[in-house]
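Sequence, structure tokens reproduced for absentees:
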Amino acid sequence: MTTANRGFSRKDRVSEQIRRVLADVLATELKDPRVGMVSITDVEVTADYAHAKIYFSTLAGREQLNTVLTDLQNAPGFLRRELSKRISIHMTPQLHFVFDQSLERGADLTKLIQEAVAISDCPIHARSLIPAMNKTRRSWQRVDGVLLLDKPSGMTSNSALQSARRQFSAAKAGHTGTLDPLASGLLPLCFGEATKFSADLLEADKTYEAELLFGVTTDTGDAEGTVLQRRPVEFGRCDLEAALMRFRGRISQIPPMYSALKRNGIPLYQLARQGIEVERKTREVTIYELRLLDFSGNACRLHVSCSKGTYIRTLAEDIGNALTCGAHLTALRRVAIGPLSISDAVTLDQLSLLSEDDRASWLLAPDTLLQSLPDVHLDDEAALRFSHGNPSTLPATSKWLRENAGFMARHACSAWARPTAWAG
């Protein structure tokens, strides 16, 4: 190993190898002239090497950016095959292309400085800074707000969080509960002051659209697992509708082994990967709505509205067992969390095409996560005391406010508190 490589981790080296190979393939193998004008500026691979985020810039101009991005998104199969031929890695990652705006911003800054130097008596040492501006370093900044992200399938929640954080250059970020890599859909992300409320959304009800395949069971309860058993499917739509009735309302579930629940500090999924199965306590959850959207003989699509802690994979398995053929989850999309809806969400690809101002317009106020709570109106004096963390007298007529005074006090020091009212 050379001295230059000693400071890099294996993940860094793999990222650099992927960058070099993709740059060479795009320049020499692909015939589309627009893709040939693309430069790979950076590559980030996940810890498990399953996904790689490819940052690119293009000389094609902003007006053709959508076309270039579409062309790149249509080429991953070819590009992954080339990577598998040229790089010795155990698994070729899925490729996700993101437009890198940092070089554009750096070019703009360089132009401004060059113009300033041209019209002023600038010292020599200031002129020497100009070439360095061609390679800008990311500057993290304070960002406060909530982003409703439409997470793609195949990406971990943390990878999605870090990608969004990078696009906003946010110094502090967190999410409100994870989605499995298989799942897509609504993933609220919190930046800055909003992270104080991220845990509160864990209590909210969730709504999903789930796709089930009958007759096949897997060790994980979803399509990513190993097939355990295949059985014939011998029921019709009426039988399925009748089975669904048993799973509406208050039901009991046994959490799956492939879950983030812990036993003696060890996540259950780690034990499951070692072939170890431990006893799990039954938990009660509520299925508010379970509706059949589509049925095709051995597969169906369901609309599920449920309480916190509900495992849709377990629900799929239990429905399959009730029909005596087994089942597993093949796709899952979260469409709502409490009052938050997927219709108000944005994808990572959409964000990457926006200007900084347009991207910021997707951020909601930090108190968006608390809109299910009632408003409390305080006069100026009480509002000032409350914003400094001091107790304020609550209306005697509000039972909810009296019972939840502790919750409100915990959030009293929020930097976004309004001067005349506190909106829960």
Observations:
- The first strand starts at residue 38 and ends at 45.
- The chain is about 30% helix and 25% strand.
- The longest helix spans residues 10-28.
- The two ends are 58 Å apart (CA to CA).
